[in-house]
Amino acid sequence: MKRHLAMLAFTLGLATGHCQNLVQNPDFESYSPCPVGQAQIASAVGWDSFSESCDYYHSCAGTTPANLVGYQMPHSGGGYAGIIIFCKAGFYREVIGGQLVSPLIIGQKYNISFYVSLSIEPPNCAFASNKIGVKFTTVAYDAYTNKIPINNFATLHYDTIITDTTNWQLVTGSFIADSAYTFIAIGNFFDDANTDTIRIGNGFVLPIYAYYYIDDVSVIADPTGIESNNFGSHTNILPNPFSDQLTINLSKNEQAEITIYDLMAKKILLQKFTTSVTLNTSQFSKGIYLYQVRNIRGIIEKGKVLKY
Fold first, then answer.
1. 238 and 168 in one domain?
2. I need a surface site. Which of 40, 115, 177, 292 has the fewest CB within 10 A?
3. Bridge partners, residue 184, by sequence
């Protein structure tokens, strides 16, 4: 009986998307064909290069754990990707990308994670860098003719310089989808002025690159799901989704204020009111917004709303 209940719970979780990893071939195990040289990320099923010539290593070719740029056991299985995220000799970024199993749901919170490890194999790989991260997009970029923009923005990035060449470092975070994104990309999406680096080791003849291995990528819907439109007994905010107007009603006659933020926590609007107020939101861009309603006792309501 317990086994049947467990299977039922697992099936229901998959049906709602809360247990499913939306990344295809997240551990780089599936290949076609076996990658026998450099710049072959396209051999990893579901993955491709979204900028420059990204690498793919697999035990089928004997390139894990030892390969031309270093030595590392896979975090799991027999395969992983490899990319340059910083170049001392000139601006250069390698970015891997792939189509998700299904589009992200607007307003849904997603938990993101992947593992990285630094290579400092001589003579070229002798830098460590920060800012490796994830960007979601609706566009399938390619290696050379339509490279993904490096525009100092990532959905998730790691600000600490990763220097560990022995262990795998977990990069993790979460975000609320503001579009029905269909592709994930991994790399450094920041220019040199916004990227910190350090030189690792001594005796390298030509230290040029910061090179990292990537494994076990995950994008999973948060079990808490999408915020309900029922905002409790203190406050009623409608409509949600909204367009040109947003109305806030309190359950009692009192003074309060509402603050609205974008997903980067930038304050967009602050409005004081008594009992009820209708806001003009025609100038808001489409997307997800966070809000807080306060009275003299403090925060009485918070949540998120969607502008369509």
1. no
2. 292
3. 98, 136
